[in-house]
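look at this stuff:

>
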Amino acid sequence: MKRYLIAGLLVWLPLAVTIWVLQAVLGLLDGVFLWLLSGSQIVLPVTAHASIQFLRTVPGLGVIVMLLGLLLTGVFATNIFGQWWLRQGHRVLNKIPIVKSIYSSVKQVSDTLFSSSGNAFRQAVLVEYPRHGSWTIAFVTGKPGGEAGHHLHGDYLSVYVPTTPNPTSGFFLMVPRSDVINLAMSVDEALKYVISMGVVAPPMQTVAGAPQGRSTRGGLPRGQVVDAAPDGAVEAARNPTG
């Protein structure tokens, strides 16, 4: 009986979570659309209120309008004219005391995570954390900069170590490049591995140009246990990121 219940849970749980996430996203888009309609009722004359009220009753209209708005905003932001207007808007927002700190912080994070030219979460690696002989998956976010980078002598990488099962929280580390091990798995596969608490292991992959007899995950020899090997053997097995 217990086995059947667990099997049924494994079938329905992913579907239920997927539906819940979609409902949350669609509800958010619909809520923003209704907020815009409420604002338009304040600005527009009373004669237009009946039409606005009718728009509230159309199912799915909010999601369609918001997605279309995002698409048009993206088209506007990718041309020269739109970029000029965006720069003017950034300057205005950066001059407002309270808004400046919030807007600039969110913009920096979003540009880093979602920009095609950013370096965030471009590669999954192994780092020795939180103690010697204990390893965890991390994501390369770039190189240390500013004052922190000035005080670090040598070649260092900035990595993000996510927590399990919620990868949105974690730890930011600056580690020597020689102390990280490359992983052939993609970022998506590494995130699934972290979220599943190590249950859903990605398949072994072949690294182009990897020496014979070495693991496809970061160049460790097949069958070698990291925490049981001598320090020299571990160092020799490491494949620094390029």
